[in-house]
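G.,

No rush on this.
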Amino acid sequence: MRVGLYPGTFDPVTHGHLDIIRRAATLVDRLVIGVAINRDKSPLFTLEERVEMIEAEVKLLSAKSGCEIVAHPFENLLIDCARDVGASMIIRGLRAVADFEYEYQMVGMNRVLDNSIETVFLMAEAQHQAIASKLVKEIARLGGDVSKFVTPAVNTALKERFGG
């Protein structure tokens, strides 16, 4: 069984994330969505809320693709998380050249830590390249419409969080 790990904070999960998940599901038999607990960031949504959002959003996708898709919270090193879930590949989404520079460094470090785990990059589809969770939160906080960037359920959660 080929297992892939797609890590991120998913605060919140966007159409860009879901596009990468949909495409990654064609590459593996089991896709683990690693929901990062990052103490250096102050997420808008709790870990439990982010996991619930992802589980709700991927349920239909999992059934359609035939790929088992599960959410898995983690706080340890990415490479250790990959080992923990039995992943042979880490899947990363790229939006722009700036993303690649950071990801390139991460791949190098991860290869030193465990060269048996490959990293696969998927370019975001053109219509999703500008989407960033940070920007989505900022637009929502200021009362803007983020319905083009997130699913209706996530849009509702953002409105509730910001009292809109």
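When you get to it, here's the other one too:
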Amino acid sequence: MNAAHILAFDCAVDRFSALVTRGGEVVATCVREAGQWRGEEVVPTLAALLAEAGLGWCELELLAVAVGPGGFTGVRTAVAAARGLALAAGLPVMPVSTLEALAHEAIATLELANFHTGLVAGRGLVHLLAVRGGKLAPAPRTLPLSELHTALPPGEPLVLARAERADPALLGERPLHRRSPHARGVLAAARQRVARGEPPREGCAVTPLYLRGPAADPAAGRPLVPQPA
């Protein structure tokens, strides 16, 4: 598969960003920072971006979307939009993780080769993905923020989303690049997956990527909904 017309977007972590490629080149982009967009605006904004690029839905060859980890609302919005557009227009989807998107953008814009990307999560946790020689690790890992300074090599750069949610003392003495995922990284990650022969998915097969369990566990105590006697 060699898709030239691609719509890539991300809204999993605070920011909403999207881009369209035509003939393999980025021809239209959109960025809305946290607090400047709402979930119901995602699909209309994507439609306007596609029109700006001079393409119709039937001309697209691939949707690329970040499916998490991230905020609950953002992840669900991204997945719902990708599913709906894919099913309505008959488009294949390449889902990628927000950590992949962060890593690919860091490689391109920061010219880093050996580093970690990370996302500060709830309950004092951080999701991490290692990059060595420009190649991403097969899978991310999740650990307590309190263990971050000892878990990473001393002095290794860290590209971190939602860094403002972490106590600076827990980040250790290392080069810190504060970043949010961007559609550029989503596009790069999707292209790499296509290049290594990974097939895209149908819309109904796109699911959120969660790297930790739910905050509420009904089995841990009283049921969330009163049960009949």
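Residues 215-220 have pLDDT under 50 and may be disordered. The helical segments are 42-52, 72-89, 98-109, 148-151, 168-171, 183-195.

Enjoy the weekend,
O.
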